[in-house]
Structures are given as structure tokens and as C-alpha cells.
Amino acid sequence: MKLTLLGIAAAVALATPALAYDGTNCKAPGNCWEPKPDYPETVEGSKYDPQHDPAEVSKQGDSLAAMDERNQWRIWNMKQTGDFVYDVNKIPDYEEGSAPPSQ
After folding, report:
1. Could you give the C-alpha distances from 99 to 22, 61, 73, 86, in angstroms and in order?
2. Per-residue model confidence as pLDDT tens digits over 30-43
3. Nearest Cα to 69, choosing from 90, 92, 42, 98?
4. Where is the composition biased (Basic and acidic residues) (predicted)?
5. Could you give the CA distance from residue 74 to residue 82 in angstroms, rounded to a whole number?
6. Please, are residues 94 and 86 in contact by the beta-carbon 8 Å criterion?
7. In sequence order, what are the beta bridge partners of 19?
8. Max alpha carbon distance in the chain (Å)?
9. How far apart are the C-alpha atoms of 93 and 98, rounded to whole Å?
10. Do 75 and 83 contact (CB within 8 A), yes or no?
11. Which tens digit of pLDDT belongs to each residue from 75-102?
12. Closest Cα to residue 86, out of 61, 67, 62, 101?
């Protein structure tokens, strides 16, 4: 009996927060985000605008290009020697910023 009452009390306690929101302000089912009252319609130019530095944003693209270049050297070396070398500095004729020789 006590265990049943305890189980019912736990179920009611867990279900209560779900009943607190009535869903009247949802744009679509499950899309109930609402901005704070002082949040602007457009973020650009407001205090919420992150204003990313273009140089910082382009760093990821630059690092991906460098990764692709190193992978080209690794593949070229593997086709030439049959061995995969992870450290591109151990590949003969490797120069940073250059493409491997064409076949």
C-alpha cells in the first residue's frame, strides 16, 4: 500500500512540470521558443550580434585546405612506395604549400 502511494506521488511529481506549459505560443508543434522581451527582431547590428572577424572565420577553411594537401602527399607517396607514411615531413621532396608531383 505504501509502495503504491509512493509510486503515485512520484508519478504526479514528475508529470507536474509537463502540465505547467499550455503550448498556446507555439509556432508549430514542438517549436515553442520565444525571445526575451528586449530581444531585437534582427540580430545584425544589435548587442547580440557576434561580429565574427573574417580572418578568424577563414582559419578553418585554411586548415582544411592544408589537411587536403597533406593527404595528397600521403596518397602520392603510398602509390610510389607502397607504404603509408603519416608524418609528411618524412616524405621525400615534401614542401609545405606545394602539391605532389603529377604521375
Report:
1. 61, 17, 7, 16
2. 787 777 788 888 88
3. 98
4. 35-56
5. 11
6. no
7. none
8. 82
9. 10
10. no
11. 999 999 999 999 999 999 999 988 998 8
12. 67
- pTM, two decimal places: 0.52
Q: Residue 93 has what DSSP assignment?
A: T
The backbone region for 72, taken as left when phi is positive above 0, alpha when psi lies in -120 to 50, beta otherwise, is: alpha
- Taking the CA atoms of 46, 48, 53 and 58 in sequence, report the sign of the dihedral they define: negative
Q: Where is pLDDT greater, at 67 or 22?
A: 67
In the structure grid, which three cell numbers stand for residue 63, read together? 586548415
Angle CA(48)–CA(64)–CA(92) in degrees, nearest 5?
A: 155
Name the H helices within the chain.
Answer: 2-20, 54-81
Residue 31 has φ and ψ, to the nearest 5°, of -110, 80
Cα angle for residues 75, 76, 80 (degrees, 5° grid): 115
What's the confidence (pLDDT) of residue 17?
A: 53
